[in-house]
Amino acid sequence: ILAGQSDWIPYGGDAAKWGVQPNSWFPVIDARYFSAQGVFTAIIAAIFSVEVYKFLVQRNMAIKLPESVPPAVLKSFEALIPVIVLSIVAQSVNIAIQSSVGSLFPEIIMNMFRPVLQISDTLVGTLTISFIVHILWFCGLHGTNVIVALLNPIILSNLDSNIRALSDNLPLPHILAG
């Protein structure tokens, strides 16, 4: 549970960038990639944080307390060092990427997946997806369950774009959404 709760650290550290809202002096966190646009980054951050957490726990990098300490308190202190290490690594990656490239980590990931998003929303892409589903069914696998796991981030991203377009009274840009 603690590893799952700490998986937001790399994602939050990589997605957050301070900015100033127009007509305001108050600094805010740029949360553009906390929606479906950042789902690919969230998946990568979750895998990364769980693996780092597992690595640190296997190496016994934790604060050791006496046996008399209650188990709930003991588990909290055992998770403290891995969470601190995750925070430091995530912020270091965030600062390095923003300094060298000048953009956020989720922007880079989204640009890498943009061709897949564009292809999946065409007639050829949709027919290919349908064909793969049926081939998997023919091979004895539940094709829809296999493909939906891979398509969910794409569909959510397209759905988010459609929601934004609908709220702005624009035509819906994506067919494969939701």
Topology:
Blueprint: H1 2-5, H2 8-15, E1 18-20, E2 27-29, H3 39-58, H4 71-100, H5 105-120, H6 123-138, H7 143-167
Antiparallel strand pairs: 1-2
Helix pairs in contact: 2-3, 2-4, 3-4, 6-7
Structural class: mainly alpha
Radius of gyration: 21 Å
The figure for the number of domains is: 2
Residue runs with pLDDT of under 50 for 5 or more positions? 1-5
* Main sheet characteristics: 2 strands, antiparallel
Mean pLDDT: 79
Number of strands: 2
State the separation between the terminal residues, measured CA to CA.
29 Å
The amount of helix comes to 55-70%
Strand order of the largest sheet: 1-2
Task: Quote the beta fraction.
Answer: under 5%
Outline? extended
Element order: H for helix, E for strand: HHEEHHHHH
Helix count equals 7
GO biological process, one term: phosphoenolpyruvate-dependent sugar phosphotransferase system
InterPro entries: PTS_EIIC (IPR003352), PTS_EIIC_3 (IPR004501), PTS_Sugar-EIIC/EIIB (IPR051088)
Membrane topology: Multi-pass membrane protein
GO molecular function: protein-N(PI)-phosphohistidine-sugar phosphotransferase activity
